Amino acid sequence: MEAIQKIFGEEALTWAQFVEKMKQNPEVQIGQTKPTQEAEQLRAALTNLQAQYQTDLTAAKLDSAVDAALLAAKVRNPKAARALLHFDTLRMENGTVQGLAEQIALLRQNEPYLFENGAGQDEETHIVRTGTAHGAQGTAPMDKFLTAAMAAAGI
């Protein structure tokens, strides 16, 4: 309060008198002032934080888009498939991941076991031929030996 009384005194001022007293006092600046060093440091820190936020947000969007694409491609193990992707070539543009479809197609071709209904993952029953009908006596020498041994033992 004393600083204001020192500058303006105790009398009521008109606007013109106020502006004149402000111009005459070197301690008071009208209009734009030079930012202090602390304000500049805060402004720089804010700019850095905003840039980091944008980078993190873009990375999060990319990660979720990749996960969604892998699930849509019916990947059996998304974590293993992500490890085989080249993230340095992927870019987010207009809400889509550029280069991801090509990489998934390449994965499907080179690593089919990662995908549902991939090669080596047939769901049909495989039949193994042993050479003889099950339950029938075979003609192999071992079968003849076992038959003779069982007959000799009375079994």
Q: What are the salient characteristics of this protein?
A:
single chain, 155 residues, mainly alpha, two-stranded antiparallel sheet, 2 strands, 54% helix
Question: If you had to describe this structure to a student in words, what would you say it looks like?
Answer:
This protein has 155 residues and is mainly α. It contains 6 helices and 2 strands; from the N terminus they run H-H-H-H-E-E-H-H. Strands 1-2 form a two-stranded antiparallel sheet. 5% of the residues are buried.
Q: Helicity level, as a percent range?
A: 40-55%
- Mean pLDDT comes to 81
Tell me the structural class.
mainly alpha
| Strand/helix succession | HHHHEEHH
Rg calc: 41 Å
Outline of this structure?
The chain has 155 residues and is mainly alpha-helical. The chain has helices at 2-8, 15-24, 37-72, 78-84, 100-110, 141-153; strands spanning 91-93, 96-98.
Q: Could you outline the blueprint of secondary structure elements for this entry?
A:
Blueprint: H1 2-8, H2 15-24, H3 37-72, H4 78-84, E1 91-93, E2 96-98, H5 100-110, H6 141-153
Antiparallel strand pairs: 1-2
